[in-house]
Design goal:
Blueprint (H helix, E strand, L loop, with lengths): L5 E6 L2 H14 L4 E6 L15 H16 L6 E9 L10 E3 L6 E2 L4 E3 L2 H19 L3 E2 L2 E9 L2 H6 L7 H15 L3 H8 L10 H8 L9 E2 L10
Parallel strand pairs: 1-2, 1-3, 3-8, 4-6
Antiparallel strand pairs: 5-6, 7-8, 8-9
Helix pairs in contact: 1-5
């Protein structure tokens, strides 16, 4: 058995790992921090269902086990970071747009494919509800934390469709800014401008209301209030 317990982070893309990997490893220095990058949204990937989402996450953890030859007992907890993508808004807030892609605004979504976007929102909202009520996966402590509408919105206060190259550059700059300065990072993610106050459950209750899942909010600050 490894001397240090493993904390597994599940993130959507490499830019999330680039932005947060260094500060998380520094803060949780007493543990082995491992990032597993899904390369997409695991709550939507391969048309995952509410019934199948826990297996999808278990598969991600199994890949970490195989890569580093870990056993289940080596893990302390799983930390899952997700974008809200505005999925908790009312259907009427999804309006016709000129583009095939989804365009996010702080009070509505625009898309040429309203029907499929409504279905996407409903499915992901149901999956997120299940995940935030899930305390353990395969015997390992599990919690999911949100960034709204996405990580770039929270970290850089801009709601744009960035290219992968732009995301990587911004993430590298962000990581460099806070490397070796974890207190400043915690101060940043805890700022009242976007950090949702309250318990884990209350922060999720908040983001599910009204149009909050499109606005700039996060409960990542809870990561530093709860080491257990």
């Amino acid at each position: 058995m490894n001397e240090k317990k493993v904390i597994a982070f599940i993130v959507e893309g490499p830019s999330e790992e680039a932005a947060l990997g260094t500060v998380m490893s520094e803060y949780f220095s007493g543990s082995r921090v491992k990032f597993t990058v899904v390369h997409g949204d695991i709550t939507l990937k391969d048309y995952v269902s509410v019934d199948g989402i826990l297996k999808k996450i278990k598969d991600q953890i199994d890949s970490v086990k195989r890569k580093y030859r870990y056993d289940t007992d080596d893990f302390m907890k799983i930390i899952h970071l997700t974008d809200t993508d505005g999925v908790f808004i009312q259907d009427r807030d999804i309006v016709p747009g000129a583009l095939d892609t989804i365009e996010y605004y702080t009070d509505h979504i625009e898309t040429a494919h309203i029907g499929s976007t409504v279905k996407r929102n409903h499915r992901k909202a149901e999956i997120l509800l299940k995940l935030r009520r899930t305390g353990k996966i395969n015997g390992i402590s599990y919690k999911i934390y949100f960034n709204s509408c996405n990580l770039e919105h929270v970290l850089y206060n801009t709601l744009e469709d960035f290219s992968d190259e732009d995301k990587q550059k911004m993430s590298d700059d962000f990581a460099e800014k806070y490397e070796g300065n974890i207190d400043k990072f915690i101060e940043f993610v805890s700022c009242s401008e976007f950090a949702v106050p309250g318990t884990y459950q209350k922060t999720w209750d908040f983001i599910e209301k009204s149009r909050n899942s499109l606005k700039r909010y996060s409960n990542m600050s809870l990561l530093f209030a709860d080491k257990n």
